[in-house]
């Protein structure tokens, strides 16, 4: 296998020429990038650069006006969000979206149901197979709560958890879908230094356990320490991509963040 063929085979997520407009505003303009199997890939850029729009296109909240999105051999363009999840891509949101009046355990169990077999009749009649599946869902939810470090809060309502624990709970719920790729939209937002360090350790473990990660984050230090490769968006266009050390010193990137005079 040639090096280029091997690179293509290892690419889990691929965007080719993706564009998205809202009225006369070009939120994304001909963006192409690839996330390799097993890496942590960072996406950074100034406010309004198009990062969350790109996430929304990848995860089915928006359909691209042009271009395609693939997860492995599967075309994601045009899929609904729940279809994207069943194909192996889960996400968290910039603003926490937990079920506030459900327990931490119940929140994770909701995520797990995307991988269950019981239908409406099973839920109504609750036969032996359905009960066994529900027990398996609950066991897996407990495992994931322990995995992310909030296992002792399983029976607490989500709204009563600390901010950092709510962020970790969102990650547990996303992991409950058994994703190939986990897309995280500013998971460190609002965290203190200790919480951020714990998050970095958790994400390294998630990757070590076989889940590829796509990360939007404003904490540039976290991105540079954690990610294998980084892409930079500015005004909806990709202006740089590469190893963190290369991107950090790119004059175009520095100008996008600090301005030409700086």
Name given to the CATH architecture of the largest domain: 3-Layer(aba) Sandwich
List the domain count as a whole number: 2
Number of strands: 10
Question: What portion of residues belong to β-strands?
Answer: 15-25%
State the distance separating the first and last CA atoms.
Answer: 46 Å
The helix content is 40-55%
Instruction: Let me know the CATH homologous superfamily of the largest domain.
Output: P-loop containing nucleotide triphosphate hydrolases
- Strand ordering within the main sheet: 6-7-8-3-9-10
Order of helices and strands: HEEEHEEHEHHHHEHEHEEHH
Mean pLDDT level: 90
What is the CATH class designation of the largest domain?
Alpha Beta
Q: What's the CATH topology name of the largest domain?
A: Rossmann fold
> Class by helix and strand content?
alpha/beta
CA-based gyration radius: 19 Å
Figure out the total of helices.
Answer: 11
For the biggest sheet, the summary is:
6 strands, mixed
Low-confidence segments, given as residue ranges, are 1-7
Shape type = globular
Structure report:
With 262 residues, the chain is α/β, with parallel strands linked by helices. It has 2 domains: 1-88 and 181-191 and 211-262, 3-Layer(aba) Sandwich (Rossmann fold), CATH 3.40.50; 97-178, 3-Layer(aba) Sandwich (Rossmann fold), CATH 3.40.50. The chain has 11 helices and 10 strands. Helix 4 packs across helix 6 (128-148), helix 4 runs parallel beside helix 7 and helix 6 packs across helix 7 (163-175). The protein starts with a helix and ends with a helix.
